[in-house]
Amino acid sequence: MELTAALFNRRTSNGPFLPGPVSREHQHLLMSVAAAAPSHFNSQPWRFVLVEDPQTIRDVADLSGRSMTELIERGVFFERYRRYFRFTAQEMNERRDGIFIDHLPKPLRPFTRQVFSDAGLKLMRQLGVPARLGEENRRLVAGSPLLLAALLDKAEYRPGELSGFYSVFGLGAAVGNIWNTVGSLGLGIQFISTPMELPENWRAMQEIFKVPPHLELMAVYRLGHLPEAETRPAIDWSSRHRKKISQYVFREDCTQPEQD
Ligand SMILES: Cc1cc2nc3c(=O)[nH]c(=O)nc-3n(C[C@H](O)[C@H](O)[C@H](O)COP(=O)(O)O)c2cc1C
């Protein structure tokens, strides 16, 4: 029962963490639950870097904030991800996936519907929204006591081959275990994904972590203790909505949706 409750209570943390450190004991527990995940032929292709050094965290934070500003400024973000955003409760309730835009930065709220258009983008630039979102992102990362880089061993991670798929699948299971455990330790976790969106910035991230040629950097996360009351950030990427069973499960073959 405890495990099921933890699974249903897991959520993405988008707000600030408390400044206090994550104990070594908890860090190692998270690494052990990651390694408890299944992997093809027990290959355990995952590798992790635990980062507490304040200068490294500042460097990642700067890169993340700059990437966010650039993505919004150039319109790349909204062009790439427009299809995941929902604008009405009705749309959200029907599709039950994606993110409901109910928490835009204050100056933009009257323009909710235009935010993904060229005019909306222009307005956002005029209002200095890209820089503001970048700074908010930088601060969130800079204020995190622990970063976690997830990597794969390239001996197993060979994109285009089955072992490439298996490795990604295994790493997903390992990170899933971490994600499902943090809550019981009073911790939160969030992807630091903006540098991944810009190849030159992702290369810079690899340099920060001194990634050797035989490893591939797959993802970076920030972790820390959660404050009592979480405040939502300017754009909240998280959503509790889930599809109904009939929207993603079939019975016997792909022609028969399962009944709810
Ligand atoms: C592959 C993947 C990439 C994600 N990227 C981000 C991200 O860049 N930033 C973020 O805050 N959340 C990210 N998320 C979290 C999702 O937005 C989140 O899981 C989803 O909105 C559901 O919310 P929940 O995790 O709180 O249930 C990602 C999740 C996955 C599995």
User: Unreliable stretches, pLDDT < 50, 5 or more residues?
Assistant: none
| Biggest sheet: strand arrangement | 1-4-6-5
The distinct ligands, each listed once, are:
flavin mononucleotide
Can you tell me the CATH class? Alpha Beta
Helical percent range?
40-55%
DSSP summary: helix tally: 10
Instruction: Evaluate the radius of gyration.
Output: 20 Å
Return the average pLDDT rounded to an integer. 92
Strand content: 5-15%
Task: Let me know the number of strands.
Answer: 6
CATH superfamily membership = NADH Oxidase
H-E string: HHEHHEHEHHEHEHEH
Q: Could you please say which CATH topology applies here?
A: NADH Oxidase
The biggest beta sheet reads: 4 strands, antiparallel
Morphology: globular
How would you describe this protein?
This protein is an alpha+beta fold and 260 residues long. It has a single domain (2-248), classed as NADH Oxidase. Helices cover 43% and strands 13% of the residues. It has ten helices and six strands, in the order ααβααβαβααβαβαβα. The two termini are 22 Å apart. The mean pLDDT is 92. The structure holds flavin mononucleotide (FMN). Residues 11-12, 14, 190-191, 193, 237-240 line the site of flavin mononucleotide. Residues 11-12, 14, 190-191, 193, 237-240 line the site of flavin mononucleotide (FMN).
What is the structure about, briefly put?
The chain is α+β, with helices and mostly antiparallel strands and 260 residues long.
